[in-house]
Amino acid sequence: MTAGNPNSRLEAFCDGVFAIALTLLIIDIKIPSTIEINNTADFWLAIKHITPSIFAFVLSFIIILITWVNHHNSFTLINKSAPSFIYANGFLLLTVVFIPFPTSLLGEHILTDHASPAVFLYTGIIAIQGLGWVLLSAASLKNDLAINEKAIAQIKVNRKNGYITFIIYSLLSIISFWFPLAIAIITTLTLVFWLYYGVKMKHE
C-alpha cells in the first residue's frame, strides 16, 4: 500500500467486501434437487423455475455494482480519514453484505402469494443503504476530508442522493405490504435509472 494514501488499506478492504458480496449472490442459484430431469424439456422447465432467482441475482448485481462505483468515486474526493468516516463506511458495507439474503428471498417468493416480506426486506435494505451514504458524506464534510471545493460540492450531492434514496425506498418498502409485485417492478425501473444516470454522469 502506498504511504501517501491514508485510505489505501480501507479501500482494499472495501473492495474485498464488495467482491465477496457479489460472489455470494450466485451461490443460491441452482436447480432444486427435488426437480426430476429426464429429458431436455424437463431441463428447460427447471431453468424456467429458477428464472425469478436469476432475475433477483441480476438486479442485486446492479445494486452492488452501482454502490461500488459510487464508493470508488467517493474515495477520489478525499485525501484524509477520520474514525467517524471509517465507522460510517463500515455501516455502508454492512448494507452491502446483507443484500444476498433478501435477494435469495426475493427470487424464491416474488411470484407467490406471500411475496410482501421479501420485497419489504429488499427495498428496506436499499433504503438503509441510502442512510449509509448520508452518514458517509456527513462524516466527510464534518471532518474536512475533501480534497478541494469541487469535491465538497460533489459530497453534498452524494448526501442529497442518499436522502432521496432513503425516502423513496422507505416509502416503497411500506407500500410493498399491499402491492409487492408492483413495488418489485418499480424498484427495478428505479435501479435501471440509477445505472443510466451513473453512466451518463461519467461521460459528461
Please explain how this structure is put together.
The protein has eight helices and no strands. By secondary structure, the protein is an all-alpha fold. The longest helix is centred in the middle third of the chain and has 27 residues, at 116-142. Helix content is 77%, strand content 0%. It has one domain. The mean pLDDT is 93. The protein is elongated and about 65 Å long. Helix 1 (8-27) runs parallel beside helix 4, helix 4 (83-98) packs antiparallel against helix 6 and helix 7 packs antiparallel against helix 8.
Q: What's the number of structural domains? A: 1
Strand content range: under 5%
Give the end-to-end Cα distance, rounded to a whole number of Å: 31 Å
Structural class: mainly alpha
* Overall mean confidence score, pLDDT: 93
| Assembly form of the protein | single chain
Shape, please? elongated
* Strand element count: 0
Taking pLDDT < 50 over at least 5 consecutive residues as the criterion, the unreliable ranges are none
- The level of helicity is over 70%
**Discrete helix count:** 8
Rounded Rg: 19 Å
